[in-house]
Amino acid sequence: MALKANILVIEDDRVLNRMIVRQLEYMGHQGHGVEDLASAHVWLHKNEPDLIISDMRLPDGDCIDELQGLGESHPVIVLTAYGTVKNAVEAIRAGAADYLTKPVSPEELSLTVERVLDTEALRNDHQFCKSRLAAQTGSHSYMIGQSDALNQVKELIDAVADTDLTVLVLGESGAGKELVARAIHDQSQRRQRNFVAVDCCTLQESLFESELFGHEKGAFTGADRKKKGLIEGAAGGTLFLDEIGEIPPPIQAKLLRVLETGKFRRVGGTRDLNSDVRIVAATNRNLKKMSESGEFRADLYYRLEAFSIYAPPLRERREDIPWLVEHFIRNHNFSMRVKKTVTKEAMRKLIAYDWPGNVRELKNVVERAIILSRRNKMIRSQHLTFGACQQETGLQLDLPGGASPTLEELEASYLKMLLKKHAGHRATVAQIMGISERHVYRLIKKHALGEAAAPVKRA
Ligand SMILES: Nc1ncnc2c1ncn2[C@@H]1O[C@H](COP(=O)(O)OP(=O)(O)OP(=O)(O)O)[C@@H](O)[C@H]1O
């Protein structure tokens, strides 16, 4: 049952009014009865009800005419005379939460009141969670930094957010591309709907198409029911395709169709469906080169790069570092107990470092320093560990087969060593090994090295 609610009853039939108020009080709520709209307004001026129960026709006016104003801030249950279903429908259309037909039975009244209060509580929770989430991931005011380079990014976000244009976000790993995509979503008309992030590296090639576009029942072995894809999951909102360079060619063609015509088909489907998503894509690879070499469809590339935003690497906007450091300290759970600051010398080092892993690496270094500095108020140079494990000597291949490892063992331990050395950054490891990030991802799975890799984003 909902908590004790404050309920206003507007009903000119004095007996019915009293009966409803008494029943509400019996249910554990607080009821207040008035007999016309004028008295209701006087009461509402000073009180904040959780629910209003109102007769449809009142001596000084029609409740329907008031619903738009009232219903926006409080749920309203309308009382209608027996046999006037048309009126009830009209009331619901005008914004009433529900209706009750006279004569009102106490059971029906209880059920309807509790249902409306529960729905309202859920709606409030939902809105609260959404606003909290928006505050955490938030619009670009949560993109920390004041540098000219970052301000330019914010200006581009402001300009494009409301247009529904497809946007390509470019930049190194960890530079904040997903944050840019989120800011675009949060500032667009689509902000009330879902932001669905898909890491194209992590989607298995065989399942990619059905993940993205969904599938019909019987489309392939194991497809025992119809499934909507991520495009439909993001309907009305934004689909963020991270690492778009990793999308296999057949799917590139289908994605191009979505961008050009807004249409797609579920796997095994024969009907064209209309998509209603705004696509924001990101990559740290050189898509232009990939399109020239035929690795990536040139027509898709041109479509995507019509509006691109470059998230600059941290080393090109060092003035953002002190702001980011302060932000990460403030947001870290451990630092809640001791208010920490960074010594001047440590800050100098943080500013001078080149940050190949960009903001993500800075965040890791700061969080590690917070833990290493334990109960100390000051974070000093000795608490900073740059380049993840680069400074650790003795980073060697750890070979189970001793002097004669198999090729598999060699592959696994080389990958493990690289992941350790580069703080789990797949992009860097891929570059060193001379393979694609997708391939690195497959090897991580094959050798069960998930823990050594950087956390994979949710889809
Ligand atoms: N300007 C910023 N203010 C606050 N936090 C930031 C900022 N830029 C990046 N971050 C944080 O740094 C981390 C990495 O950012 P993000 O995931 O957006 O990078 P990315 O470029 O998408 O990385 P990848 O290419 O590896 O997917 C996240 O925790 C993000 O919240």
Automatic annotation (TrEMBL):
Residues 6-117 form the Response regulatory domain. Pfam families: AAA_lid_14, HTH_8, Response_reg, Sigma54_activat. The modification 4-aspartylphosphate is found at residue 55. GO terms for biological process: phosphorelay signal transduction system; regulation of DNA-templated transcription. GO terms for molecular function: ATP binding; sequence-specific DNA binding. Residues 143-371 form the Sigma-54 factor interaction domain. CDD domains: AAA (cd00009). The keyword Transcription regulation applies. This is Two-component system NtrC family response regulator. It comes from Thiolapillus brandeum. The lineage of its organism: Bacteria, Pseudomonadati, Pseudomonadota, Gammaproteobacteria, Chromatiales.
